[in-house]
Amino acid sequence: MDAMNEPRLTHVRADGSAHMVDVSAKTESTRVATAQALLHTTPEVLRLLGEGGLPKGDALAVARVAGIMAAKKTPELVPLCHPLPLSKVTVDFELREDHVRIEALVKTRGVTGVEMEALTAASVAALSVYDMVKAVDKHAVISELKVLSKSGGKSGDWSL
Q: What are 119-131's pLDDT values in tens digits?
């Protein structure tokens, strides 16, 4: 592979300094990304989550709103992200045997992808669940924050 075709970091200039990528020449398209995070906890806490019976209240409702708000604030949290007009953000929860699976989907019509917004939504939703359960499980663990799929744009569609 020659130097012209080698993968490179787009947020780093030739001199090594960081910069915000110029996306003005990119083609507008519908962009969608899905990300997940897992929050591992005890079966008793999972039961309380499902029933809305935690001391702080309905953790999943709070975490859903927190995740949606976080997606909209991504460029304020991640310095080189472009502000995007988000057209859809969903945050959903699946209670499993030993964890909650949090999935965030973000959609826009624009010139750059929404992977960072989906990751931010999933991570902040997980942090919100953690905050709500820490009174009853100080050992809860957040793991497996990752992008599951993305569509739109020059690089095409992919999924895990």
A: 999 999 999 999 9
Looking from the CA of 130 toward its CB, the CA atoms found within 13 Å total: 17
Residue 10: inside a domain: no
Q: How far apart are CA 99 and CA 109, in angstroms?
A: 33
- Determine the structural domain holding residue 136 and report its residue range: 29-152
Residue 56 domain flag: yes
pLDDT digits (tens, 9 = 90+) for 20-43: 788 888 889 999 999 999 999 999
Q: Rounded to whole angstroms, what are the CA distances from 91 to 24, 111, 125, 147?
A: 30, 23, 8, 14
* Model pLDDT, residue 9: 61
Return the active site residues. 131
Radius of gyration of the chain (CA): 18
**Which SS3 state, helix, strand or coil, does residue 101 take?**
strand
Q: Which residue ranges in the chain fall short of pLDDT 70?
A: 1-9
| Rounded alpha-carbon distances, angstroms, from residue 44 to 15, 48, 64 | 53, 6, 21
* pTM for this entry: 0.89
Q: Is 139 exposed, middle or buried (0-12, 13-18, 19+ CB in 10 A)?
A: exposed
List the CATH number of the domain containing 49: 3.30.70.640
